[in-house]
Amino acid sequence: MLSFEYRCAIGRRRSRTSAVAAVGFVVFGCSSGEGEADTIRERAPVVYGDDDRREISDVPAWQRVFDDAVVALIPGSRLVDEGGGRVAVSSMTLSEKYSVCDDERFARQVTAASCGGILIGSDLVLTAGHCFDEDARCDRFSYVMGYAGESVLLDAERVYGCRDVVVRRVEVGAEGRHVDFAVVRLDRPARGVPARIERGVPPVGETVTMLGFPNGLPGKVDAGGSVTENGASDHFQATVDAFGGNSGSPVFDGAGTLRGILIAGAPYDYVAADGCWRVRKVPADEIESQGTERLALLEPALDALSELGAAALPAVRCTGLDCTADDPGEFQVLPPPNPGDAPGHVVAVEKTPPSAGGCAMSEPTRRSGSAALVALLALVARRRRTRKTYDVSAPT
Q1: Residue ranges of the domains in the chain?
Q2: pLDDT score recorded for residue 219
Q3: Structure pTM?
């Protein structure tokens, strides 16, 4: 049986940097919607066979889909108004934030996004529910279209604020139930074209493509995935190469039709090697035994919107760059490995599903010293809020 790990925001503002530095690996607590809201992830590899991620500009067939409908959820503090209708992305690089080896792919690119999303209406964005805390405050993020390329400069007209989270549900239950979605209403109609949507479960073997922001990087295309399981009523599984930050990333079939969004995957993005961190990979002949990534089907979100029916527009909560609610700013997520760590060494902190209440953390896979354990216990003690497993909020 596969177990789940919740990889979300790290602690509260006062405890972030010290706790991460002491543990020596990416240590995520329950999502507060602040900064690094990442993914609920299964025990499964991150990269299946070859690393298929490519720049948006290198795959013209997907460029228009990305430009028209894919949205990055970025804390407003990481965006800088350059004037003249241009907005610059200002954030740590992948190397600075995750201490990856210098020759790792995309090491010098910025890592600004916390989640991805997809335009499903003129002003509606579908993303993962766990990208938000239970209070479902949409002003945690600016909603950005066109976040791609090595030197990121954005069109200010495509940086949106929000009115509200129209609906949000997160349910992980018995018998494999996994519902995880949120729909955000933007502050104004988007300059784009909503994705084409198809209900139903894609067949096993169907080729799928994910467009998103792995580890917060500018947009990437992963066209090397295929459906491996489709027996559940609310999700399916596929071999897309997903990382933290890919939560909410849209997944399309070969016809360019939206079939789901990423909600779950591998707990370990990187492994220790050469005194730094490298992408964790699994050989193609081991994929079947390792499990694959989990994608939410569209029916639960579409049905929830239908049940709400027409509603009066709520007031605009934030506009453009003005979406910075309780943003903790930048911090290093993954310090370099300890000198004594063996090649391939990983240390992770696991979280129980929300139904257990609070954030229960297991000890690291491999202990890195008493200081790390003390830091973990202290972090657990600070996280006392009880979490909900189900939340629906309509505009007011």
Answers
A1: 4-308
A2: 96
A3: 0.77
